[in-house]
Specification:
Chain lengths: ~220, ~220
């Protein structure tokens, strides 16, 4: 039995690959592990059945035999630990790749999500311009630091790793703004990630779900 | 040579244990690993020497022989993987404990930090009351879900783990507000964490740094 992940029955990002199942799909594609997908509605996500798998009522989840996991960082790390291709072999290099996983999710993603939410929800508020300036600055500080560290390397620390996988998906959340264009080093980095065959397969798979759901929409 | 961590020379939290070195100190105390501390000023944190260790110019860092790490999640996980006491032995239980580490840092901490920052920086803004309502709601939704999952258990999944360690430090950030008092299950959980001898030793160690720095302040 292949592992089963959950994903939005009807993704609010309209198939642009920003929903977090994309990260798990990409990791599974990188290591060549087939998987099943169970689609869940927004209503079902908050019901006891799904909450038993995910205490915060979100997607994705990951079920493999007796194991049920939530949190994309943990799922991607679990996949990386049980297959070759997403973590380097050396102990120290492995620890550093994991540091980039946490950096993506705890240092880069929070200000990027905050900016995205403000652009989505606060556009008609009196304070929008003032807040946007602050939020943009917070994101740009982190992008500047990341850009300097990456330099002219292809990936953050040697070969492509689970750290790069998560960082690319986090930076892709900025696609709707034009910020990333001011950091050519990072734009190229994201493009390198998106060009990987495993990324393309994962992207097409999640897009197919959205396209099929749209056809059946009233 | 014991490992060396970095910490604020003069912590902005005035020794209340909210700076992120607290998490690493606590983990090291739990596993009985002695450590050295190198204090860094705000200026030094943004200089090339420190940026080589931490690309985002923050504390803590962790140096052990040839290995240099940043990101508290990665450092705590590294400590947990190389010593007994912070991760369960079973493969599945271990993966679930790591899921709680990511949940603490990627699901709970971002809205809690956002609320804390608004309370610190936006108090005199015209929008403060309206924003505070939104931010409080986001935090309360997560606390409610976490409270339900914890139930009457002592810890999130069996014995105390690195997941509980990070979750308790994240929830402690709410100490300045009175929100946690509305979730007695979580207040007791945090109190259980703070009562652990390893927590007490780590707390005293970081408080001593702050007290000594204050004595020498002009």
């Amino acid at each position: 039995m292949p592992p089963t992940i959950t994903a939005f029955a009807n993704s609010p990002d309209r198939g642009r690959g920003h929903a977090r199942d994309m990260r798990v799909r990409w990791a599974l594609e990188e290591v060549g592990q087939p998987y099943d997908v169970r689609l869940v509605s927004f209503e079902a996500m908050k019901q006891p059945g799904h909450l038993a798998l995910h205490p915060f009522g979100q997607i994705p989840t990951f079920e493999d035999g007796d194991l049920a996991l939530f949190e994309t960082g943990a799922i991607v790390l679990h996949i990386a630990e049980h297959h070759d291709g997403l973590l380097p072999a050396g102990t120290n290099a492995r620890a550093r790749a994991i540091a980039w996983m946490f950096a993506a999710l705890n240092t880069l993603e929070p200000p990027i999500v905050e900016l995205g939410m403000a652009m989505l929800l606060e556009r008609d508020k009196s304070w929008y311009d003032e807040r946007l300036t602050v939020l943009n600055h917070r994101v740009r500080v982190r992008l500047g630091e990341l850009s300097v560290r990456l330099g002219d390397a292809d990936w953050l620390d040697g070969a492509f790793s689970a750290g790069d996988l998560l960082m690319v998906t986090v930076l892709r959340r900025l696609n709707a703004s034009h910020i990333l264009g001011d950091y050519p080093t990072l734009s190229s980095y994201v493009a390198r990630g998106e060009a990987r065959p495993a990324f393309r397969r994962a992207f097409e798979a999640q897009l197919t779900v959205f396209t099929a759901a749209s056809k059946h929409a009233p």
